[in-house]
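This protein record is not my work; I was only asked to verify it. The record follows directly below this note.
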Amino acid sequence: MRSAWLLLGLLCLSACRRQDAAEPTGPSEAARLEAAAHHGADAVFKPSGKTAAGEYVGFDRNLYPGDQRLAELHKSFAYAGFWLNNPPGETSNSWAGKRLLLRKAGFGFLVLANGRLDAEIKRSKLKPDALGTQDAVSAVAAAKREGFPANTLIFLDQEEGGRLLPEQAQYFFAWTEAVSESDFRAGAYLSGQASPDGTGPDGKPLMVTTAQDVREHIAAEHLPPVAFWVQQDACPPAPGCTLAAPLLKDSGTMDAPVWQYAQTPRRPSLTRTCAATYAPDGSCYAGATPDLFVDLNVAGSPDPSAGR
C-alpha cells in the first residue's frame, strides 16, 4: 500500500510540474520592463521649481525640447506640458512616445489636447457636439496609448478668448462631458484675460473672460466640473518672463489649479510694464538656454494632471 501511495505521489508531482511549466510564472517581459521603468521613475521624482509659497513652476511649448535637454530643464521646472495630438499650427506631434522619458527625468505633467478653432468647427461636416465627442474619444485613446493612468486630467486647448460662440460651446462641452464619462478627468486651457462683451444698460462696456463664461455655463446647465488652466499674461497681475512665479491665487480666476503667466511670443499690448523680462525677440527663455523658448506656468502641484 505504501508503495502504491508513493507511486501515486510521484505521478502527481510530475504532472503538477508539467502543469506549472505550461502556465506563466509571472508578468510578460514587456510588462516587467514597463513596471521597472515606472518604478525607476517614481524613485527619482524629486520635484524642482518649488516657489517660496510652496507652489511649483512648469513649462509648456509646442515642440518637444529634445531628450538631451530634459536634465537641464528639470533644474528649473517641476512639470511639462504634454500634447496628445498635433499642437496648434503643427502638422505632427513631437511629444508622442516621450512620456516615460519625461517621467524618468523627474517631470510631472500638464496633459493637453488641441481643440478646434471656430472656423474649423464651422467647416466640419459633423455637428459641433458630434465633433467634440469624436475629438474627446481620440484624446482619451491617445492618453491611454501614452500610458497615462486613470484619472489623469486632460486639458482641452481652447485657443480663442472671450465668450464662447454657440457652436464653440456645443463643441467644448461635448468634449468635456465625453472625457468626464471616461476613465479620465476634463480640464481646459482657456483665457483669463478680460475681453469686450457688449455694453451694459448704462452704456458702459462689459467685459468677460472665457473662464467666467465656461463657469456660468456649467452652473446654469448643471454640467460636470472642468478644471481651469488659465492663461493670463497681462502685467500686472503677471510678472513677465521670470521664474519668480506669482501666487496662483492672484491669477484673477478663482480656484484655477494652473496659471500660465508668461507666453512666447509676448503680447506687446499686455506686457509693456514687464517687457524687459523677455528677450529682444519677444520670446521667454527663463530656465533654458537662449535657443529654447518656453511658456511659464505656476501650479499648486508638481504634477498638475496627476499623470505620473
Summary: The first helix runs from residue 2 to 22. Residues 57-299 form a domain with the TIM Barrel fold (CATH 3.20.20.80).
